[in-house]
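Preliminary data (for renewal application), zinc ion complex.
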Amino acid sequence: MSFSTQVKDDLTRVISSKPCCRRAEFIAFFLINGNIRIGNGRRLSFFMQTEHSASVRKMFTLARDFALEREITVHRRTQLHKNQVFTLNVPPQERLTAFLHQLGMVDDRGCLRLVFPEQIREQILGAACCRRAYLRGAFLASGSISEPEGSYHLEFSSLEHPQADLLVELLADFGLNGKIVRRKDLEIVYLKGAEEISQLLNIMGSHRSLLEFESIRVTKEVRNQVNRQRNCDTANINKVVNAGMRQVRDINYINSTIGLSQLPRNLRIAAELRLDYPDYSLADLSEISALGRSALNHRLRRLAEIAENIREYGTEEWDR
Ligand SMILES: [Zn+2]
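Predicted structure:
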């Protein structure tokens, strides 16, 4: 099962005990996914379609609050993946006009207005509980989310312009930064980033999926950290080995020019130690020789200077 389907399954199980929220959720689904039909004798009906069967069953339940007569039908797509499509049909009936009135979609003269009901917005989305419910309905109608193992992406797709604007506003109410992108003649609102997606799952009430999302996210972060640490360790090892090799080169150079025996005793000891353990770090050398780290570091630096002086001024002039 895809993570999108899992989140939707989760959301269909959340049935609010408050009529205000049930109404907001149904209206979100209707405004995004509903199609109004004007039939013979200008009789109105509408239908809402989705491939997610539990969503349609939930809308069937929520429509009870509006006392709408309704039925669910199923058919299989003839093209593409031949998926099943579930339709909630609301046939022509007295109550339908009342329902559309509630949405401000029928004006005082009884004319249909296919616009977003700006004037009743406060009434439907005034309370935070209802704004959460609206986002839930919107996700059921048009949402999808990428698998959390990959990159983080959540979107509401196929939106008319006013719907996209409204979603961005509602997301902003909860401190989320929804972005709009146009695809063909419709719009998409999307969220990026684990933090924001996680918050939205919480806001919509998708708690089971939220837990799974968070646990995958933590696993991923730990894995990234381990990889970073490993890269860092490798870099350190390379640094140690490079430093050792450079010192061995210098010491060999001193030996081949003036000879190690010409060095003061403390430098000779350090030089021989380095030649014996070319890949040891300073700390390792210090440990096996019982010489202090800073003394050892000083001597190795001194050896590098001597080699440098010999290169520059010749064997006669090296600085004792
Ligand atoms: Zn409410």
